[in-house]
Amino acid sequence: MRSFTSVELLIDQRAHRFLDKGPAGGARSRLTEFVVFGLKQGWACIFGAALLAVLLAARLWYPDNAALARNDFLTLAAVVIQILMVATRLETVRELRVIVLFHIVGTVMELFKTDVGSWSYEADGFLRIGAVPLFSGFMYAAVGSYMVRVYRLFDLRFGRYPRRWITAVVAAAVYVNFFTHHYIWDARWVLLAAVVIVFGRCIMHFRVFRRTFRMPLVLAFLLVALFIWIAENIATWSGAWLYPNQVDGWHMVSPDKLVSWFLLMIISVVLVAWVYKPQPPEAPEDASGEIPLHVVPDGGVARPSS
User: Phi and psi of 205, rounded to 5°?
Assistant: First the structure.
């Protein structure tokens, strides 16, 4: 069941009117699938991309002597982006609940990590909890926004998805380790092995335009973690936050952080899976590749396979 918001439905219908004129096979068809894949990924990242653009703009043009602290400006801008996402029906209320959960989970981690000195923020502004400006939670919310959007835009299905209670145990252990490794042995490599064992057999099926593709879910985790690491480099360059080795001058974020982001993906997937229960692959569609539409709850529109 692939659901769209009303705005996305309009875009989807217009795109189909244009793309359906193309051939169903050959190089042009493969190029179409590739371009649509990129456009859908960009659309799924819209919240994070908008937030990253604001971070860069604030670094380049926000005045140092402004009456409103830069961190407060970033928080207000993030709130406006989130309101616009819902008001323009780019996100559903159901998705917003998932994103708020990401926000809470991320903010709790931020409070602890800044307290132990893992990273730091500029000490200005009033919209903050302790040393953590409130815009930081929206960076985790951006990950949540991407996860729920990519889930429906690509009509994700999962072959041999593990039992959800097992994934919840692994995700809880990952989350706890983010805190406890400061005091006891760091279990991240054991947790990485657990992730490979639990998710290693799972295959993700995703529909781009006419065709459905497959990818090992663990590989998908790694690719998303890589793109988050790239975004993290941009965000730290903009001064959104700094790691200890960046205080005296910016350096690229250590590739070791890829492991942290990979493990964070496990938490993200489990959070989304408790709202959107992973579904197995469906039967093949008819030769035309066309899928009828009907309305589903929360203002979405579904395109079920026949």
Answer: -105, 130
Two tokens, residue 240: 């959104």
Note the helical H segments in 181-299: 188-199, 217-237, 257-273
CB atoms within 10 A of CB 259: 16
Dihedral angle, C-alpha 97, 100, 101, 102, nearest 10 °: 130
Residue matched to tokens 């953590």:
132
Q: Tokens 């995703």 appear where?
A: 206
Whole-prediction pTM: 0.82
| Helix/strand/coil (H/E/C) assignment for every residue in 30-82 | HHHHHHHHHHHHHHHCHHHHHHHHHHHHHHHHCCCCCCCCHHHHHHHHHHHHH
- Are 51 and 139 a contacting pair, CB within 8 Å? yes
Give the C-alpha distances (Å, rounded to integers) separating 181 from 155, 173, 185, 255.
37, 11, 6, 19
Alpha-carbon span 143 to 264, nearest angstrom: 10
Single-letter amino acid, residue 117: G
In angstroms, rounded to a whole number, what is the distance separating the alpha carbons of residues 120 and 241? 6
Tell me how far apart the alpha carbons of residues 127 and 106 are, in angstroms, rounded to a whole number.
Answer: 16
pLDDT band at 191 (very low <50, low <70, confident <90, very high): very high
Tell me how far apart the alpha carbons of residues 80 and 74 are, in angstroms, rounded to a whole number.
Answer: 10
pLDDT tens digits along 10-30:
777 777 776 776 666 677 778
